[in-house]
Amino acid sequence: MTATVDTAALTAWVREFGRLIAAGRDLLTELDSAIGDADHGVNMDRGMTAVLAALAADPPTTPADVLKRTGMTLVSKVGGASGPLYGTAFLRMAAAAGAADALDAPGYAKVLRAGLDGVVARGKPAAGDKTMYDALAPAVDALDEALAAGRPLGEALRAALRAAEQGRDATIPMVARKGRASYLGERSAGHQDPGATSVTMLVSAAATVLGGD
Amino acid sequence: MTATVDTAALTAWVREFGRLIAAGRDLLTELDSAIGDADHGVNMDRGMTAVLAALAADPPTTPADVLKRTGMTLVSKVGGASGPLYGTAFLRMAAAAGAADALDAPGYAKVLRAGLDGVVARGKPAAGDKTMYDALAPAVDALDEALAAGRPLGEALRAALRAAEQGRDATIPMVARKGRASYLGERSAGHQDPGATSVTMLVSAAATVLGGD
Amino acid sequence: MNQLINDPSNVVADALRGMADAHPELRVDHENRIVFRGDAPVQGKVGLVSGGGSGHEPLHAGFVGPGMLDAACAGEIFTSPVPDQIMAATKAVDGGAGVLHIVKNYTGDVMNFEMAAEIAAAETGVEVVAVVTDDDVAVQDSLYTAGRRGVGVTVLVEKIAGAAAGQHRPLAEVADIARRVNANGRSMGVALSSCTVPTAGKPTFDLPDGQMEVGIGIHGEPGRRRAPLATAAEIAEMLVGPILGDLDFTGGDGVIAFVNGMGATPLIELYVVYHEVAAILAKAGITVARSLVGPYITSLDMAGCSVTLVKTDDEMLRLWDAPVRTPALRWGA
Amino acid sequence: MNQLINDPSNVVADALRGMADAHPELRVDHENRIVFRGDAPVQGKVGLVSGGGSGHEPLHAGFVGPGMLDAACAGEIFTSPVPDQIMAATKAVDGGAGVLHIVKNYTGDVMNFEMAAEIAAAETGVEVVAVVTDDDVAVQDSLYTAGRRGVGVTVLVEKIAGAAAGQHRPLAEVADIARRVNANGRSMGVALSSCTVPTAGKPTFDLPDGQMEVGIGIHGEPGRRRAPLATAAEIAEMLVGPILGDLDFTGGDGVIAFVNGMGATPLIELYVVYHEVAAILAKAGITVARSLVGPYITSLDMAGCSVTLVKTDDEMLRLWDAPVRTPALRWGA
Ligand SMILES: Nc1ncnc2c1ncn2[C@@H]1O[C@H](COP(=O)(O)OP(=O)(O)O)[C@@H](O)[C@H]1O
Ligand SMILES: Nc1ncnc2c1ncn2[C@@H]1O[C@H](COP(=O)(O)OP(=O)(O)O)[C@@H](O)[C@H]1O
Ligand SMILES: [Mg+2]
Ligand SMILES: [Mg+2]
Ligand SMILES: [Mg+2]
Ligand SMILES: [Mg+2]
Questions:
Q1: Pfam families from the entry (chains C, D) (predicted)?
Q2: pLDDT tens digits, residue range A147-176?
Q3: Range A4-208: architecture per CATH
Q4: CATH topology of domain C12-184
Q5: Which residues pair with D74 in a beta bridge?
Q6: Domain limits of chain A?
Q7: What value, to the nearest 5°, has the Cα angle with vertex D127 and ends D142 and D110?
Q8: Residues near C262 by Cβ (< 8 Å), separated by ≥ 6?
């Protein structure tokens, strides 16, 4: 039985992501205080608040519409590193969603990988650079793997979440090579990356909202 | 038996004053922090250190010489309100000492009153304005009174010191009308005046050094 | 508080060395702690001498140069300069047209400038006129007190009188204009932190987060009252209200509106305050003819700001606009 | 930390209102948070657009005006502006000769300016060249990292490129000069206190009295290392040493020496530091051709300073000396 991710489901995913960001705003800013400039929570919350308002004001009609408007709003409201990164990710997801009315599980996985590719295209992160990539890449890989092994979407998303969480936690000992944290050199070790933390919320939102098999 | 205050005695007086100022430097600055600008101890200590160095480098030969050089050095080293006030006081004392080789008790009292007049001429303080005047004026009055009553100089100086101390303590509840403390209005009440405190040290130095009847 | 200094007792001397290094167009007399414009004395021009305690930078040395001061005497931190310095400066800038002393109204400053003028008159015959600034409305004026403090208006007096002197006007006229600026100027300030006098080594007063001192001067002294920290809009009201209550600023040729930083307040906050001040003035029907925003008369590392308004006339505005070339105020040159 | 603000989330908008009030010669687009020179676009002149997170005032909006920038885009505090803003500014300042983007090297700034340039190229055909500043020697440069931060040199790039654009030189030439200034510039900074991002409401890091952070940037981030507070002379060594170790500053036409305040450090301390910097340069046989002392690229209410040196040639000096008329940098006009 293939789960169907339609416009409503994607909207719910984005809304749940916004909720997690709002709830985690202070945590994200706190993490960014240690190795960045104390604004990641504020940035993401400003952006997601605008996204939710935009989606509520004028409900989207296709999956691509949800994703494109989320990306455009993030690009024009967030700024900083996370604005172009999340923005590009959602815009690439929208392109991957194409004209479909709904996505099946592999389709959703392809969309998420397109998002990851967007992050890579925009930020050129490599594994171990201590960025959002270190949580998102393992999550996307785990999702593909679980689906390839025939697992249903919900189970696959829970595996993706576990991978994201492990990737996020693995950023703690890393010495940053990208983003502001890289300026700290060795002093960046011992702190969890803010972007890896927020992107884990994105995966978590998917597991919660799209994971009811 | 009339005590004789000669060049050496006056020099000793000024040196003892310098010692008390150095020892009280932090106290004076502390008092000035509460109702002024946190520099009275530093100002007076800078000035008196220069005075002692000048007197040591080239020992004065007459009472007027001690007083004049003390006054000139204070004028050119202290600045602020206390520089012109103490400087003018000592310069007026020098003028009152005239050409005498030594002062008798009434002569010394006249010199001290000339100093008080100098403070009045320069700063126009009135009683109760919460300034050095409120300690120095009662001290000079007490000195005159005790000498008029036939007391020896040492006893008279101890009476003067008690009057200075009472005058100094009496500045605590006063609302300042002169100097920086006046800017605080009612908030100046409850704090002891720094200048009244340092001028009490001047009288104390006299009681210690010139008071051995 | 951490400070960027060497020995606390050498801060003034060290900073003057830095000024000499950074501004070769000035001449610094390190012995007397005087900053001169390089070409002083200017023959036929009234010489302008100001000075005061250090710790208010750029006041006064940062305002030395063509179109403003001829010399600034630097006292110790928050301690007025001594008569020797003032006399030396006075003699050195006299170009035959006399010398104007611009003195902030503090007992120490007034007495030291007074003694210098007395000695200068007796010893040299240089004609000296002193103008005392006293614009701080936080202090009640009275015959029986030390009177109001000289604060923000001093910067504007130095600029405008400097321009008048630059036109080679006679001493009496330059002094008149200086007095007119002062008479038409009012200020009030607020502190959001204390400052630390280097030789004292700790803050002059304790100010907990969430509290502020209203009605401060420029020497780290506490203000007239302590109050809970307010918004920029409320603070602007607290500062501008008493100023407008003390003098009618409507009419004339508008005001110069000056929002000054106390030393540790960043420019972004000063602009936030400026907007609130401008809004209050607009509501009160007062035209802003010119503005100035920045830290120009400071109190070491104190956080806070002051507002100064000067009611102008056409002549004052022309003198304000005249070219000036100093380290801290420069235009048209 | 007490701050002079209204609502923490409105600081940028409020400060832009204050800038508009105080500087009628500028035009402020409040919707897009862009400060323009009043007469933009200037036909036939390359348009200069910069921008970045707010909290660095006067950078960048304080440098808008004849002889420097045509527009500055203000992001949120410490957050780069978004592509929409940058595109709007780019279109509005294009006078037919193309537009130069001056971008400080931070991931966020670089990516947002990049996206803006991509969209501008696709949508409008305005020719855009970006120059990225990266002068901070505290950060090790490497192909595999984000590279060095853009800090103090940005001010000098904006001034010198602005003068070149003012002479109506072609875009490629203006961009070349901007790159030359950056390539010849090196900086390093120290923090004596943290700063407080208004929306965060508390200091970004804890720095006890008697400690400092060496090798900081301009976003309140901790430095490369913490060290016991040192004297101004020692700190000058710590900052100038790595700068001189990274580039040979001898010869040429001397350097521009820039001692910058981080926002809460008073001018008197900056001059103390400047003297120490000048002494080190003299000892190293490096001639100071020009100097700049003051808070020009700040980090909110952080205490501390940075030193920037730029090795100059005759052309750079002539462009540096050219008239400039902006709120924060003004001479000859
Ligand atoms: N080059 C990059 N590639 C991928 N992610 C990056 C890159 N640079 C930064 N990031 C992510 O962005 C996060 C910081 O975002 P944010 O604080 O909003 O922006 P800024 O650093 O501009 O203040 C970091 O924690 C990191 O995960
Ligand atoms: N007009 C005055 N007459 C007499 N004494 C005064 C007057 N003004 C100030 N003082 C004295 O000077 C003291 C302050 O001296 P000081 O702190 O050295 O100078 P400043 O106030 O310039 O910093 C006050 O405590 C007060 O006793
Ligand atoms: Mg950040
Ligand atoms: Mg004092
Ligand atoms: Mg003093
Ligand atoms: Mg940021």
A1: Dak1
A2: 999 999 999 999 999 999 999 999 999 999
A3: Alpha Horseshoe (1.25)
A4: Rossmann fold (3.40.50)
A5: D52
A6: 4-208
A7: 30
A8: C189, C191, C195, C216, C218, C295, C298, C299, C302, C303, C304, C305, C306
pLDDT in tens, D201-231: 889 889 999 999 999 999 988 888 999 999 9
Residue nearest to atom 2 of ligand 2 (CA): B123
Task: Please calculate the CA angle C255-C259-C260 and round it to the nearest 5 degrees.
Answer: 135
What pLDDT score was predicted for residue A76?
95
**Which of these ranges, A82-91, C67-76, D152-161, D197-206, has the smallest mean pLDDT?**
D197-206
Instruction: Starting from the CA of residue A194, give the closest ligand.
Output: 1
Confidence of residue A2 (pLDDT cuts 50, 70, 90): low
D186-324+327-331 topology per CATH: Hypothetical Protein Tm841; Chain: A;domain 3 (3.30.1180)
> DSSP string of D118-129?
HHHHHHT---EE
Secondary structure class of D290 (helix, strand, coil) = strand
Tell me, letter by letter, the H, E, C secondary structure of chain C.
Answer: CCCCCCCHHHHHHHHHHHHHHHCCCEEEECCCCEEEECCCCCCCCCEEEEEEEECCCCCCHHHECCCCECEEEEEEECCCCCHHHHHHHHHHHCCCCCEEEEEECCHHHHHHHHHHHHHHHHHCCCCEEEEEECCECCCCCCCCCCCCCCCCHHHHHHHHHHHHHHCCCCHHHHHHHHHHHHHCEEEEEEECCCCECCCCCCECCCCCCCEEEECCCCCCCCCCEEEECCCHHHHHHHHHHHHHHHCCCCCCCCEEEEEEECECCCHHHHHHHHHHHHHHHHHCCCCEEEEEEECCCCCCCECEEEEEEEECCHHHHHHHHCCEECCCCEECC
Q: Give the C-alpha distances (Å, rounded to integers) separating C314 from C309, C317, D169.
A: 16, 5, 40
Q: C165 is written with which tokens? A: 């002197």
Is 0.90 surpassed by the pTM of this model? yes
D56 interface with A at CB cutoff 8 Å: no
For chain B, give me the number of helices (H) and strands (E)?
A: 8, 2
Helix/strand/coil (H/E/C) assignment for every residue in D227-259: EECCCHHHHHHHHHHHHHHHCCCCCCCCEEEEE
* Burial of D122 (C-beta count, 10 Å sphere; 0-12/13-18/19+): exposed
DSSP code for D1: -
Residue D323 to residue D321: CA distance in whole angstroms: 6
Amino acid of residue B122: R
In eight-state DSSP terms, residue D46 is: P
State in Å: Cα B82 to ligand 2 middle. 5
Ligand 2 neighbours by CB, cut-off 6 Å: B 32, 36-37, 39-40, 43, 80-82, 85, 119, 123-125, 131-133, 178-180, 193-196; C 79, 107-108
B and A adjacent (3 or more CB pairs under 8 angstroms) = no
> Are D15 and C275 within 8 A, CB to CB?
yes
Residue of C nearest to D228 (CA): C2
Q: How far is CA B80 from CA B42, B124, C52, C69, C76, in A?
A: 11, 16, 9, 22, 9
Residue of D80, D83, D224 with shortest CB distance to A76? D83
Average of per-residue pLDDT values in chain B: 96
Chain-centroid distance, C-alpha D36: 17
Residue of B nearest to C78 (CA): B37
Query: What would you measure as the largest C-alpha separation in chain A, in angstroms?
Result: 49
Token digits of residue A51: 């996204």
pLDDT, position C222: 85
- Name the CA radius of gyration of chain C, rounded: 19
Cis status of the peptide bond prior to D58, with omega within 30 of 0: yes
Length of chain A: 213
- Between A4 and D61, the more confident residue is D61
Q: Cβ(A184)–Cβ(A121) under 8 Å?
A: no
Q: In this structure, are residues C46 and C170 in contact, taking their beta carbons and an 8 Å threshold?
A: yes
